[in-house]
């Protein structure tokens, strides 16, 4: 039995959601928000995107796609039909029935959570909140953010959660570049701290996502996502540490891992690299580490994993200098080509990319550094503006060392090995087709 102050509000919104006549707002049209907005618009919802970057908003309204996980044709269709429109302010919040927040949650320089985007957006919504709205947070954050940060801000409106508005957390599970698992077919966790918010949020996400996984609270849902990324961070750190050990032992870490992964049970493949990047793995575990301190609890695995993963660019730099030393070339005289600066293969996203840290270290040692990345035409590193160099035979031959930091599929590695003087492969991409190549040093 519904015991809210105004039970008709709940039923009215539920009916709108199931009839797909609810007006949906998506705050933040980035790697999470734009695919989500398009999915909702595809099934008939009208979606207002609130994107405070005017250039992005303009591109959405022109159906000029900038997210690789979004189909160009689908974006054109939902924009042309009027089912998706982007704006740069919060003026229409009072018209919206559901507001989905997909804003960044970075770290401060001291590895503490920076909730400024969530707080700012929530305050804007609170100033316009009306009875009968559902607010959901998709941004990854520490357990307690939805209840302890967002709820008090929203209730400054005079409305109460579970009575006149509803609030839930449903963490994004976007894997950029993954063609198998998309927004639609990736299981969706939903949590809320009152049963009516959970019911409405579950109903809302069921309209476009194949399988919903309800949990008991917003805090539980927040911890689910942080744990998922922490699991990956810890296991990547484990194989990175193994790579450091194998370097001391004179063993090939790739050979060891390939053999270990033939076991049909009790193991899961993870591979080493120059570090970790993107918007999740380098950041999210520290949200949990920070929150744990509030309870006088030290998350040793998380702290150690972060330390190991952050150390990998220095290891790459040191190994690069060892390769150059064998060639009789001092770092200050070396010409180095960094191959790939995005944090993950076949993407244009270079947020938190370990390749950038490698470049910083090389520049600090006065090496002459250039890069090639088919997806990232320009970068800026410590005030140095760099432009992607064409991958031509003469360019490869003119460098003393090529460091493979991102294993893009579009790169002709045969050409690289043919023309380069020496190659440091931090991703193991050459070991399959060109095993034991004399020019290659593996991580």
Radius of gyration: 24 Å
Overall domain count: 2
Return residue spans where pLDDT drops below 50 for at least 5 consecutive residues.
none
Residue share in helix: 25-40%
> Order of strands side by side in the largest beta sheet?
3-2-1-4-5-6
Structural class: alpha/beta
CATH superfamily of the largest domain: NAD(P)-binding Rossmann-like Domain
| CATH fold group of the largest domain | Rossmann fold
On the 0 to 100 scale, the average pLDDT is 94
Shape: elongated
Head-to-tail CA distance between termini: 61 Å
Give your account of this protein's structure.
- By secondary structure, the chain is α/β, with parallel strands linked by helices.
- The chain has two domains: 210 residues, NAD(P)-binding Rossmann-like Domain (Rossmann fold, 3-Layer(aba) Sandwich), CATH 3.40.50; 211 residues, Rossmann fold (3-Layer(aba) Sandwich).
- The protein is 39% helix and 14% strand.
- The protein contains 14 helices and 15 strands.
- The strands form four sheets. It has a six-stranded parallel sheet with strand order 3-2-1-4-5-6. Strands 10-9-13-14-15 form a five-stranded parallel sheet, covered by helices on one side. Strands 7-8 form a two-stranded parallel ribbon.
- β5, α6 and β6 form a beta-alpha-beta unit.
- It is elongated, with a radius of gyration of 24 Å.
- The termini are far apart.
